[in-house]
């Protein structure tokens, strides 16, 4: 009986990259789901946690694991492989994992709207897209992503969704009435704060992944040299 032939190094590398990316992606989705269903619905505290997106801090560990794992997986590649080629997997996996959290939040929000309404799922999606486009100029995931930078807590019912823009205008006009500051100033503050939080977490994810990616590359190089020395010792 013949022994199974070992997989080519490139195939081993690709398998390692896919397995690691899927594992980290699933872990991030589980953390996001737990936060959306268990933490964020809590009175007062949940809204505060969601507004500051503190659950994103848990991603530091996941992005460190992703970076180190993808760097370490390059041990299956030739030492002559350029850094640019080694970094392709990270360039694809990092945004996929990062934005998966917001993609799941978008779907959970649509599920909540559907559960609280007598409308069909497709009708809710159309209604949500209309409201998101009025507020941000975009529909679907990107509309949700842009809208939640300035409105972390979106309407939970179809009725609230239909008057979302009007409620925001009323809220800001009340702030203007009590403070005497122009409404446009509050819009700039809310938009700036929301995008500031998002950019902070994007930067944190990128820096963490890059630092540990290079740590993984160093480990892969050391493993490659160790294997080479071991092979020479057997000669």
Keywords for this entry:
single chain, 235 residues, mainly alpha, elongated
**Total of DSSP H or I helical runs spanning 4+ residues:** 9
Helix-strand sequence: HHHHHHHHH
Largest sheet: none
State the end-to-end CA separation: 28 Å
Q: Describe the global form.
A: elongated
Uncertain segments: none
> Residue-averaged pLDDT, rounded?
84
Proportion in helices: over 70%
Q: SS-based structural class?
A: mainly alpha
Strand count: 0
Q: Work out the oligomeric state of the chains in this entry.
A: single chain
Taking all Cα atoms into account, the compactness measure Rg is: 23 Å
**Percent of sequence in beta strands:** under 5%
What does this structure look like?
It is built from nine helices and no strands. The mean pLDDT is 84. By secondary structure, the chain is an all-alpha fold. Helices cover 79% and strands 0% of the residues. It starts with 8 loop residues before the first helix and ends with a helix. α1 (9-39) runs antiparallel to α3 and α5 crosses α6 (140-150).
């Amino acid at each position: 009986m013949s022994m199974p032939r070992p997989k080519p190094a490139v195939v081993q590398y690709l398998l390692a990259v896919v397995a690691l990316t899927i594992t980290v992606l699933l872990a991030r989705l589980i953390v996001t789901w737990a936060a959306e269903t268990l933490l964020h619905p809590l009175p007062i505290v949940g809204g505060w946690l969601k507004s500051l997106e503190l659950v994103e801090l848990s991603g530091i560990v996941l992005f460190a694991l992703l970076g180190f794992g993808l760097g370490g997986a390059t041990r299956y590649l030739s030492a002559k492989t350029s850094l640019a080629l080694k970094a392709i997997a990270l360039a694809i996996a990092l945004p996929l994992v990062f934005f998966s959290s917001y993609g799941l939040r978008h779907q959970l929000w649509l599920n909540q709207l559907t559960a609280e309404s007598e409308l069909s799922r497709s009708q809710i999606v159309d209604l949500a897209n209309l409201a998101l486009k009025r507020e941000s100029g975009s529909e679907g995931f990107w509309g949700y992503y842009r809208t939640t930078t300035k409105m972390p807590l979106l309407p939970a019912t179809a009725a609230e969704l239909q008057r979302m823009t009007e409620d925001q205008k009323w809220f800001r006009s009340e702030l203007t009435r009590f403070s005497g500051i122009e409404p446009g100033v509050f819009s700039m503050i809310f938009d700036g704060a929301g995008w500031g939080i998002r950019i902070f977490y994007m930067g944190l994810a990128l820096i963490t992944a890059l630092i540990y990616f290079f740590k993984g590359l160093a480990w892969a190089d050391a493993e490659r040299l160790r294997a080479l020395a071991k092979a020479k010792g057997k000669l």
